[in-house]
C-alpha cells in the first residue's frame, strides 16, 4: 500500500531568512522515484534537504560533496553508514581493527558499485567518480526506507550512472535524487520535479514532461 512519507504545503524554503523556493506544495509517497531538475542554483539541494528533514524512519542521504573523510579508507567511510547501529566501543574497535566479517560486509557493497579491491585505499586517493561510488556504497550499506541523493552520479558516465541508480533501486523502495542529466532522469524517475524562478514549475511523470517543459527549466 502506498504511504505518504513527507508533505510540504505552500511553504517557503530558504536559508538565513532568504526565500529560495516559494509556495512549495509537494508530497513524497512510498515507491516513488523523484528526480529534482533545475539549473545550477535553482534550489534542488534546498528542496532535497527540506524533504530529508521531514522524513521519518531509516533514511540514507548522499550529500553533493559526498561527505567522505579523505584520509580514511573506503572501508571506513562506507562503515560510517551504520555507525548509529553500533555502540561506541564497537565503532572504535572497527576503526582500528576491522573484523573479517565487517570487511566482507563492506566488500559486498563496494563490489555492487564497481569498487572491488579498493576497500583499503584512502578515499582522498580515489577519482571523483570513485568517491561518488564510495558515498553510494555507504548509502547501500546503511539501507533503509528512502534514499536522498544530491547529484550522486555526476562524475561517472551515463551507462555507469544508470547502473548505480539501479543498485539504489534494488535497496531502496523510495528515492529522491537531484540530477543534472535530463535523459538519465527521464529514464530512471517515476516523477519529475522541475524547479525554475524560485518555484516548482513541473511535477509530472517523465512521459508527461515535454521537451519545451524541460528546456524552460534551464533558460
Ligand atoms: N547551506 C546553505 N546555506 C545558505 N545558503 C544556501 C545553502 N545551500 C544552498 N544555499 C543557497 O540556496 C540557493 C539555491 O541553492 P541550491 O544548492 O539549493 O541549488 P541547486 O539547484 O542544488 O544548485 P547546484 O545544481 O549548483 O547544486 C543558492 O542561492 C545557494 O547559495
TrEMBL record:
Pfam families to which the protein is assigned, alphabetical: ABC_tran
SUPFAM superfamilies: P-loop containing nucleoside triphosphate hydrolases
Annotated InterPro entries: AAA+_ATPase (IPR003593), ABC_transporter-like_ATP-bd (IPR003439), ABC_transporter-like_CS (IPR017871), ABC_transpr_LolD-like (IPR015854), P-loop_NTPase (IPR027417)
Keyword Lipid metabolism: no
UniProt GO molecular function: ATP binding
Keyword ATP-binding listed: yes
Keywords tagged on the record: ATP-binding, Nucleotide-binding
ABC transporter domain mapped to chain residues: 2-219
Name this protein carries in UniProt: ATP-binding cassette domain-containing protein
Organism, as annotated: Marivivens donghaensis
Lineage: Bacteria, Pseudomonadati, Pseudomonadota, Alphaproteobacteria, Rhodobacterales
Amino acid at each position: 500500500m502506498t504511504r505518504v512519507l513527507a508533505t510540504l504545503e505552500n511553504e517557503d524554503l530558504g536559508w538565513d531568512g532568504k526565500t529560495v523556493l516559494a509556495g512549495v506544495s509537494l508530497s513524497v509517497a512510498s515507491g516513488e522515484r523523484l528526480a529534482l531538475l533545475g539549473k545550477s542554483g535553482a534550489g534542488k539541494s534546498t528542496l532535497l534537504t527540506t524533504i530529508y528533514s521531514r522524513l521519518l524512519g531509516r533514511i540514507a542521504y548522499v550529500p553533493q560533496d559526498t561527505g567522505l573523510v579523505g584520509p580514511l579508507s573506503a572501508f571506513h567511510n562506507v562503515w560510517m553508514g551504520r555507525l548509529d547501529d553500533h555502540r561506541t566501543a564497537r565503532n572504535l574497535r572497527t576503526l582500528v581493527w576491522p573484523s573479517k566479517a565487517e570487511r566482507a560486509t563492506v566488500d559486498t557493497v563496494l563490489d555492487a558499485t564497481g569498487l572491488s579491491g579498493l576497500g583499503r585505499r584512502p578515499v582522498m586517493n580515489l577519482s571523483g567518480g570513485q568517491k561518488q561510488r564510495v558515498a553510494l556504497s555507504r548509502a547501500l550499506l546503511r539501507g533503509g526506507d528512502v534514499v536522498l541523493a544530491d547529484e550522486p552520479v555526476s562524475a561517472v558516465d551515463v551507462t555507469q550512472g544508470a547502473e548505480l541508480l539501479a543498485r539504489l533501486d534494488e535497496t531502496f523502495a523510495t528515492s529522491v535524487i537531484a540530477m543534472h542529466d535530463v535523459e538519465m532522469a527521464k529514464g530512471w524517475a517515476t516523477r519529475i520535479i522541475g524547479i525554475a524562478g524560485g518555484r516548482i514549475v513541473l511535477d509530472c511523470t517523465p512521459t508527461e514532461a515535454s521537451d519545451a517543459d524541460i528546456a524552460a527549466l534551464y533558460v
